[in-house]
Amino acid sequence: MRILITGGAGFIGSSFVHYVLEEHEVDEIVTLDALTYAGSKDNLDGALDHPRHQFVKGDIRDQELVTDLIKDVDAVVNFAAESHVDRSIEGAKPFVETNVRGTQTLLDAANDAGVDRFLQISTDEVYGQILDGKFSEDDALNPRNPYAATKASADLLARSFQTTHGLPVLITRTSNNFGPRQHPEKLIPKFIQNAAAGKLLPVYGDGSNVREWIYVEDNCRALDLVLRKGEIGEVYNIGSHAEKTNLEVTEAILDTVGVSNDLIEFVEDRAGHDQRYALKTEKIEALGWEPQYSFEEGLERTVDYYLD
C-alpha cells in the first residue's frame, strides 16, 4: 500500500509513520507537512532517509500540490490539524483554515483520484463533555470549543463525501494521546519538563477535569487496524479506559520524576473547559484491538524520553 500521511511530522502523525514503516515491509509512505511550530523533521529521525519514505514540505490547502501527491497513492491518512485548544480560544481562524478548508481540499483531491481509503483522524472532543457514562460513535456531536468545532466540521464534511460521492471514508475519534515527540505545550510533556526543572505546574481550576489517556503507540496500532480492516463509512472510537483527573495526572508525573507535590499551582480555569470525556470502544475492540500499555507504563516511557 502507498499511503499519503498528512501532518506526518507532528506528534501522532510521525509516530504513525514510524509504526507503518516498522510493521509493514512493503508499504510506501509519502509524508506531507507544513512544518509549522508543532511539526518537525526531528520527529521523523530514522524515517527521512528510509527507502520507502518520501517527505514533502507543503500545506494541505495547496490544491495543486495535494492533487499531484494523491494521484499516486492508495490511501490518505489525514493527521494535519491545528490542535491546541488554548490557541483556538485565542483565535479560531487558523483552525478553520487548516482543519476545515484543508480537509476539504484533501477530500476533493481524493475523490477525483479515486483512492481506496481516506482515514480522517479526529478526536473525542467533538462529542463535548459527558458527566456520566461514555460516548458511542452514534452519539450526536456537541463541540464546545473552536478546536473541537472545526474537527467536528471536518468529520461531517468527510462523511458527506462518503454519502454523496461514495468516497471510502473512515473516521477515528481518539482520547488524549501522550508519549514521545509530543509538543511541549501539551500537558504531560510540559509538566514533565517543568517538574524536572523545579518549575511550577499550573493546573486549571481545581484539577477535577477528567480525560482518558492513551499511549501513542497503542493509538497507532488502532489507527493502522482501522485503515486496513475498518468498515467503510464507519466511525471508530479509540480509548484506553484509563480515566484520570488532571490533578491525578499531575501527581503521577511528579511522583515519576521524583519531586514534591509542592510544585502544583492551581490557576484560573480555562474558558469552556469540558469536565469529562469518555468513550465506548466496542467497535475497535471487535477488530481485535486492545491497549497494550497501562497509563503508568506509558508515563514511565514518556518521562524517560523527555529526561534522557
Please give the structural blueprint:
Elements (H helix, E strand, L loop, with lengths): L1 E5 L4 H13 L4 E6 L19 E5 L5 H8 L4 E4 L6 H6 L2 H21 L3 E7 L22 H20 L3 E6 L1 E3 L8 H11 L3 E4 L5 E6 H14 L5 E4 L4 E3 H12 L6 E4 L14 H5 L8 H13 L1
Parallel strand pairs: 1-2, 1-4, 2-3, 4-5, 5-6, 6-10, 7-9, 8-12
Antiparallel strand pairs: 9-11
Helix pairs in contact: 1-7, 2-4, 4-5, 6-8, 6-10, 8-10
Describe the structure.
- The protein is an alpha/beta fold and about 300 residues long.
- It has a single domain (about 1-180, about 215-240, about 280-290), classed as 3-Layer(aba) Sandwich (Rossmann fold), CATH 3.40.50.
- About 40% of the residues lie in helices and about 20% in strands.
- It has ten helices and twelve strands.
- It has helices at about 10-25, 65-70, 85-90, 95-115, 145-165, 185-195, 215-230, 245-255, 280-285, 295-305; strands at about 1-5, 30-35, 55, 75-80, 115-125, 170-175, 175-180, 200-205, 210-215, 235-240, 245, 265.
- A seven-stranded parallel beta sheet has the order 3-2-1-4-5-6-10, sandwiched between helices.
- Strand 1, helix 1 and strand 2 form a beta-alpha-beta unit.
- Helix 8 (about 245-255) crosses helix 10.
- The radius of gyration is 19 Å and the shape is globular.
- The model has no long low-confidence stretch (mean pLDDT about 95).
- This is dTDP-glucose 4,6-dehydratase.
- Its cofactor is NAD(+).
- InterPro entries: dTDP_Gluc_deHydtase, NAD(P)-bd_dom, NAD(P)-bd_dom_sf.
- It comes from Halopenitus malekzadehii.
- GO terms for molecular function: dTDP-glucose 4,6-dehydratase activity.
